[in-house]
Amino acid sequence: MFALVDANSFYCSAEQVFRPEWRNRPIIVLSNNDGMIVAANRQATEAGIPKFKPYFQIKKQCEEKGVIALSSNYELYSDLSSKMMEVIGRFAPEQHIYSIDESFLSFKRSFPAIPCLRSHENQLRKAVWKECRLPVCVGMGTTLTLAKVANHAAIASQKARKQGSLCKTLLCFASNSPHDDKPVNGRATHHFAYPTADVNHITSVVTHIAKELFHPDVRYYKVGVGLLDLLDGRHEQFDLLNPAPNNNQLMTIFDKINYKYGTDTLFLGAQGINTQWGMKREMLTPQYTTKWKDIPKIRC
Predict the structure, then answer these.
(1) Overall number of domains in the chain
(2) Among 47, 65, 159, 270, which is least packed, fewest CB within 10 Å?
(3) Percentage helix, strand, coil, to 5, in the chain?
(4) Residue 181 dihedral angles phi and psi, to the nearest 5°
(5) pLDDT tens digit string along 215-260?
(6) Residues 75 and 291 sit within 8 Å (Cβ to Cβ)
(7) What is the DSSP pairing of strand 165-176 with strand 68-70?
(8) Order of strands across the sheet that contains 165-176
(9) For residue 99, how many other CB atoms are within 10 A of its CB?
(10) Whole-angstrom Cα distance, residue 5 to residue 39?
(11) What number of other Cβ atoms are within 10 A of residue 200's Cβ?
(12) Range of the domain at 132
């Protein structure tokens, strides 16, 4: 069993670690020379701020909506990432750091030392928050690919519920690099008997499809999930023959808890530089952990 542990909007979350008053505020982080939006947290996205747009084009919109715009603080992100990965690594016998905010864990031969992976995941997330003040989500699967796909499935179903949509068709894809000797581009679709946005149903289907797409000799580069043929949930036609109707009450509670306490507070078990040039960073926050003069002062 593998897990993908992924920090939520890592650049934005890192900026909130030493500024608790910024939590639950819309935040964006800009690229080198304050050019383009490279990170936006959930609140900024909900305010209509798009990623990968030149900042000067939407600067006025950000100011009107009270969005906090910041320069990339790579020194801070790198240091916090190292601390986060160290905490995550304590929870499995094997760890592979995939990127600055993603880490794969292997739980091979971990039973009975870890009797329940679900409670173990919960302890991991709590430990990262307690020691690093960074929110993370965890996706689980029997392979690294399944862990990542399951994570995408739970993000996708949440978006569908938020806009009041039900999905009739699901697309799942997985591919290696187009530069590999033998390019692989697998994709499969599933047509639901009844439209749904239930995270349990969607994740179950995605996990089954991903097992069919997965090949042990392929080094996967890109995986994802797409919800197609969406319907307006307000006009859902109920059917007495549906063996597993949408559990709207459960999904409402699921989304409310995650909205109140942070993304992936409640989740499914199936889901886990230092620059050398003087670039423009006019909205740079202090380098709280890597520069003496920026170390926070505590008055008791």
Answers:
(1) 3
(2) 159
(3) 40, 25, 40
(4) -60, -40
(5) 888 887 778 888 877 777 776 667 777 776 677 778 888 878 877 7
(6) yes
(7) unpaired
(8) 185-196, 165-176, 220-232
(9) 10
(10) 18
(11) 17
(12) 2-6+83-141
Do residue 137 and residue 47 come from a single domain?
A: no
- Do 35 and 55 contact (CB within 8 A), yes or no? yes
pLDDT digits (tens, 9 = 90+) for 9-62: 999 999 999 999 999 999 999 988 888 999 999 999 999 999 888 998 989 999
- The two structure tokens encoding residue 210: 């991903």
Residue type for 298, please?
I
pLDDT at residue 88 in the model: 95
Angle at 85 between CA 80 and CA 89, to 5 degrees: 155
Say if residues 174 and 210 touch (Cβ distance below 8 Å): yes
- Please indicate, yes or no, whether residues 133 and 192 belong to a single structural domain of this protein: no
What does the angle CA 188 – CA 198 – CA 254 come to, to the nearest 5 degrees? Answer: 135
Q: In DSSP terms, which residues pair with 228 in a beta bridge? A: 169
Question: 249 and 227 in one domain?
Answer: yes
Domain contains 23 = yes
H or E, element range at 165: strand 165-176
The reply to whether 299 falls in a domain is no
Exposure string for 150-160, b = 16+ CB within 10 A, e = fewer: bbbbbbbbbeb
The answer to the question of residue 19 being in a domain is yes
Q: Is the pTM of this model over 0.85?
A: no
Burial 245-273 (b: 16+ CB within 10 A, else e): ebeeeebeebbeebeeebbbbebbbbbbe
- Residue 174 dihedral angles phi and psi, to the nearest 5°: -155, 135
Which among 116, 141, 166 is the end of a domain? 141
- Is residue 266 one of the residues assigned to a domain? no
Instruction: Say yes or no: 136 and 204 in one domain.
Output: no
CA distance 87 to 93: 13
Contact 198, 245 (CB under 8 A): no
134 and 150, same domain (yes or no): no
